[in-house]
Amino acid sequence: MKIESLRAFFSAAPFMADLGVEPVALADGRLHTRLQVAPRHLQHTGSVHAGVMASMADHTMGIAAQVQQPEGRWILTAELKTSLLRPATGQQLHCEAWVIKPGRSLAFTEAEVWAEADGRRTLVMKASATMAVVEAARLATAPART
Q: What is the mean pLDDT of each run of 10 residues along the chain (146 residues)?
């Protein structure tokens, strides 16, 4: 998949578009995404909210797994674990995600989130996720819940 296709894929996810997460590079089974930190991403302490980083890592891992799937299959997060290592401060966040083990029904992924301040990167979060592989037709026919 080309980076232009990934950008379209990311922009089709309203929450990721709203956060401002964008794909930067896809190579050797690894996906790199970036986020320009803005005041709306911060919590009361001035550091980036953990929910922003967790969402970034989750989506980046999901897309890393998605690009390995055949047509007609979608990736959905089944389990997500995050470990916050230190507060994230700086101008940008970078996330690197990769698939540990692809599968027909489950894929196992990992990610790291780095905060960049004045050109220096610091590791701020480690994440792992189990991704469920589902048929796209099954999602399209799922009844809406109220």
A: 82 92 92 98 97 98 94 95 98 98 96 97 98 85 56
Contact by Cβ (8 Å): 32, 96: yes
Residue 46 lies in a domain: yes
Count structural domains, the chain: 1
- Kind plus residue range of the DSSP H or E element containing 11: helix 3-11
Count helices and strands (H / E) in the chain. Answer: 4, 6
Domain that holds residue 100: 3-138
Do 49 and 57 form a contact (C-beta atoms < 8 A)?
A: no
Question: How many angstroms separate the CA atoms of 102 and 66, rounded?
Answer: 10
Task: Give this prediction's pTM.
Answer: 0.91
- β-pair partners for 23: 33
Helix 50-66 vs helix 3-11: angle between axes, to the nearest 10 degrees?
130
Q: Is residue 145 part of a domain?
A: no
Cα 111 from Cα 125, distance rounded (Å) = 8
CATH of residue 62's domain is: 3.10.129.10
